[in-house]
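>> received
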Amino acid sequence: MKTFIFLFLIVSAFSAASQTRLATTEYPPYVNLDGKEVNGVAVELIEYIYGELGESIDISVLPWGRALVNTSAGKVQGLFPTFKTSEREEFAIFMDEVLFDENIIAVKNSASQKKWSRDNFKNLTLCLVNNWSYGAKFDALVEQKSFAGIVYVKAARQCLEILLLNRVDFWVNNEFGVRYLAAIYEAEKNIHFEAKVIDSNPSYLAFSKKGKITKEKIAKLDAILKQMKLNGEYKQLIDIYFDSLTALSPF
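>> returned
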């Protein structure tokens, strides 16, 4: 019996050590924290990629600043989803394949006849989340006071609410964020996505330079993600995630 317990502890310790520890932050719909359960479209994608290698991962949901510090110090092996910056490249190795192109889009009430065009900006009112960046191009338009008016709110959910009440002409936001909120508040039929992407920022899975990741391992992960995009599994995973979202109570 003692021998069995000893062997069990060794196997358990080995399994824990062999898991890849990754850090992230709560960032719906990419990463959601439901009690102790971590889910979200980015989590599902990362788990699928590692599953193709026959490996498991341990995900820590942390404040973003702490996630960056822990990755820099090698306390976790990587983090996601993260934008590539020169500062982060000093302590992290980024995959070649992009996890998500985080597109910034404009959305209007489906009953609205307003047009999203540069010539018409001076006649449009917008809803934005206070202290958010929407990419350099759009941030510059805001700074130049290109629009008739801007309503600032604390959370993206509030923008959806006031858009549905026709208190603004457009809501500018991350595309997946719009899809997520529209799904859980059953508003898909009440909003219209403008076709043109305002800006796009690629996000990645990146690994600590102080970790044990190898170039060969990163190449395998890149190959799996690339193949998913080529064979349609990538799009299918994203579509299934959004289709499976459960609606909450309406506003």
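>> The CA atoms of residues 35 and 61 lie 11 Å apart.
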